[in-house]
Amino acid sequence: MRHFRLWNLQVAVFVSIASYMCAQAGNISIHSPEKSLIRSVQEDVFLSVDVKCLCVPTIQWTFMSGLVSRTIGTWQPGVYTNITVDYSSRVQAYDNGSMGLMDLRLQDAGYYVITVTDMTGSSRDMGLVLKVNEVLYEDLQYLSVSAVALAGIAGLLMLVMWLLDKAYRRIVAWRQKKQMQGKTERRPSKCCRRFNIWPHQSTSENECPHFCKWSFL
């Protein structure tokens, strides 16, 4: 029983000393180099703060926008980290109180309040403003440039196909012409020339002892 009382006394002295040191140090200080940030959809943002406290602080981030207020996460540096389900895949907590938020959405625009609480229950708040822009202009510009590029490529392909079709038609016509010329230009074989039989003469196969036919070019 005596040891138990001594332990309680030691704990009480330690808490008193820690509380006194925090009070002497001004308890808590929060500093941020940038309190207003502007990002675009799908970008990442780093909410940079620097929390100073001689005690082990409890850090909590809260999102506020209009009538909406929700807790993002709570942690103690080196002790535990508790990020809510809605932000668990997009939030990174840091020991100095900073927070990273990834893959921004339009509904992420609003006020982000950090609340730092020391061991005595004293707390201090600071807010940061985040504006999230849509990328409609960039999207429209990208789509217009892509459409112009695709239209140019389509026009070039149509021109190439037209030239190939024209060349193909000319080759086919040239071949047909050559075939017609070959059918109309006939010449007698050697044996027919020997017996003086010519294509313009009316003759039959029995007039040639070799029974040859006319040959073609």
What would you note in describing this structure?
The chain crosses the membrane at residues 142-164. It comes from Takifugu rubripes. The protein is of the alpha+beta class and 217 residues long. A six-stranded mixed sheet has the order 2-11-10-5-6-7, with no helix packed on it. A three-stranded antiparallel sheet has the order 3-9-8, with no helix packed on it. The chain has a two-stranded antiparallel sheet with strand order 1-4. The longest helix is centred in the C-terminal third of the chain and has 49 residues, at 136-184. The model is unreliable at 11-15 and 213-217 (pLDDT under 50). Among the domains are: 27-134, Sandwich (Immunoglobulin-like); 136-176. It has helices at 2-24, 136-184, 190-194; strands at residues 29-31, 36-40, 45-47, 50-52, 58-65, 68-76, 80-83, 91-93, 99-101, 110-117, 123-133, 186-187, 215-216. The chain is built from three helices and 13 strands, in the order H-E-E-E-E-E-E-E-E-E-E-E-H-E-H-E.
